[in-house]
Description:
By secondary structure, the protein is of the alpha+beta class. The chain has one domain (4-170): Glutaredoxin, CATH 3.40.30.10. The protein contains 4 helices and 11 strands, in the order βββββαβαβαββββα. A hairpin with a 5-residue loop joins strand 3 (29-31) and strand 4 (37-39). The longest helix has 14 residues, at 59-72. The model has no long low-confidence stretch (mean pLDDT 96).
Amino acid sequence: MSRIVTxxxxxxxxxxxxxxxGGRAPDFKLVSRDFKDVSFSDFKGKTLVINSFPSLDTPxxxxxxxxxxxxxxxxxxxxxxxxxxxxxxxxxxxxCALNGVENEVILSDYKSSSFGLNYGLLIREINLLARxxxxxxxxxxxxxxxxxxxxxxxxxFDEVFSALQEVLKNG
Length: 171
């Protein structure tokens, strides 16, 4: 994975550890919309689709969260779709209520940047998360990762959910 992304054409560095496909998913400590701490271990035994994005207040992030929420409606109860940004939990709660986001767990990395640093997705220069997605199997192994090279461009949603189907099919 490249350690550089662009934001409106300007190169920016990703901070944090380098993760690899096939490696163990690192822990994280995030905050729920009701200000409760949430960690990776809270999802033990589940297959995870994690999507990270800079801010709910941008059109591409808005699209991303709505698309992941829509696709999450039709998948197995053994899969949890998680959205992570550095937006405050107040803003996340408002966005989810206004847009009917009920199938995706939206969490905030505003406190400690734990997710951004542990997954190498923190954009150092602007202290926001890069746009990306991971599929982590029920055993905690990273099976897929996509990072948008240009932060203002959307992810390939079909590719993410195709990777999820492959993980579910092959264990």
